[in-house]
Amino acid sequence: MHDPPIASPGELPALPPLPAEPLIAAAPGAPPPVPHPFRFDGQAGEYFRIWIVNLALSIVTLGLYSAWAKVRTQRYFYGNTRLDDVPFEYLARPLPILVGRLIAVALFGAYVIAGQFSLALQLGLALLVALLTPWLLVRGAAFRARYSSWRGLRFRFVSDYAEAYIRYLLLYIPLLLTLGLLYPYVKAKQKAFLVEHHRFGGHWFAFDARPGHFYPPYLIAWAVMTAWIFAASLLLGAVAVALHASGTSAKEPAMGLIFGWMAVFYGGYFVIWVFLAAALGNLVYNHTTIGPHRFQSRLQGRRLLWLYAGNTAAVLASAGLLIPWAKVRLARYRAECLNLLVAGSLAAFVAERGEDVGATAAEVDSLFDIDIGL
Questions:
Q1: What residues are paired with 340 via a beta bridge?
Q2: 52, 272, 291, 320: most buried by Cβ count inside 10 Å?
Q3: Which residue spans traverse the membrane (predicted)?
Q4: Would you call 25 helix, strand, or coil by DSSP?
Q5: DSSP of 150-202, one letter per residue?
Q6: From CA 124, how far away is CA 118, in angstroms rounded?
Q7: Which helix (DSSP H) or strand (DSSP E) does residue 23 occupy?
């Protein structure tokens, strides 16, 4: 496998016109694709040293160092993630991230403070953020793509604000009117938007999953959650009746029952969420292509549940000191479950021109937990 020639910034070829639809057809009679596994080589001890310094300096500087901490963390995880034995790179600079983070914190602070003076003002700010959400999603995705690279070639996210407003704002109207029944359809359209507007090396990413593919995972999760809540409520009712029959009327047992029911409810929700996340992760990656190449994801709900449960217990038992170990452990599993099925040669990727993208939107959507992940 030969690395493609990388042109210097002044020698990049002009960006070719973007086709209306991705072109991914393979030549007839082509050899079967060759799996190229992703690999994560990071070590918990290495990352712990980065993490503890980041934490200490962020505290000492009252959070100002957090932008540098984010860049150091991203560069470590990108640099230790490899495809075809070539590491990824994170190229963003700390200062733009710091400016974006300060703006995001100021906006969030204004929202919190407004609630102390005027509920109408707070609702107005919440509505403003909601109206800005599609724009923030596009700009945030563009920033992350622009400053991510592999083999010296940067990713790109082609902005389409009109389509973003349709899929991240207008589609919520029929979603509400159908009492949530269109939720899998909406998520499918949103995932397709994010995948299909990414480019790398002169090729479009494409997404061939239909909304119907999203309904089975969500319907199964909803059915199991409904049954879980029903069973937990029956158990709570039976215990309450037994306590009443025994003449117990103290407040403590009642509060214990309520907290016990909440623990059972959230425990069941956590288990179902993990299995749903594994199913959706496989669904999205297994229907994503770039040029003639296809992704293959093999996440397992049981293994992911074990990882999340073990990580949570370890972090709580160590008062947070095992956070680096937990993050490295999860990153290694996610990488080992992902392949790129290569049809042809990876040397066909070529450089494209791009433009700098501000970090403000990326920090705002991170602060308000706007979901744009796969």
A1: 36, 295
A2: 291
A3: 48-69, 90-113, 119-143, 164-186, 219-245, 257-285, 305-326
A4: coil
A5: ETTEEEEE---HHHHHIIIIITHHHHHHTTTTTHHHHHHHHHHHHHHTEEETT
A6: 10
A7: none
List the beta bridge partners of residue 150: 88, 153
pLDDT tens, residue by residue, 188-239: 999 999 999 999 998 999 999 999 999 999 999 999 999 999 988 888 878 7
The answer to whether 102 and 366 have CB atoms below 8 angstroms apart is: no
Within 10 A of 358 (CB to CB), how many other CB atoms are there? 17
Torsion angle of C-alpha atoms 357, 358, 360, 365, degrees rounded to 10:
0
pTM above 0.90, yes or no: no
Pull the structure tokens for residue 112.
Answer: 């919190």
CA distances, 260 to each of 177, 253, 255, 268 (Å): 35, 10, 8, 12
Backbone φ and ψ for 307, nearest 5 degrees, come out as -65, -50
**What is the gyration radius of the CA atoms in the chain, in angstroms?**
24
User: What's the CA gap between 205 and 289, in Å, rounded?
Assistant: 6
Burial bucket for residue 76 (CB in 10 Å: 0-12, 13-18, 19+)? buried
Q: What is the 3-state secondary structure (H, E, C) of 86-139?
A: EEEEECCCHHHHHHHHHHHHHHHHHHHHHHHHCHHHHHHHHHHHHHHHHHHHHH
- Residues with Cβ within 8 Å of 29's Cβ and at least 6 positions away in sequence, in order, are none
Residue 240 pLDDT greater than 70, yes or no: yes
Residue 247's CB: how many other CB atoms inside 10 A? 6
- Residue 354, classed as helix, strand or coil, is coil
Cβ–Cβ < 8 Å for 195, 217? no
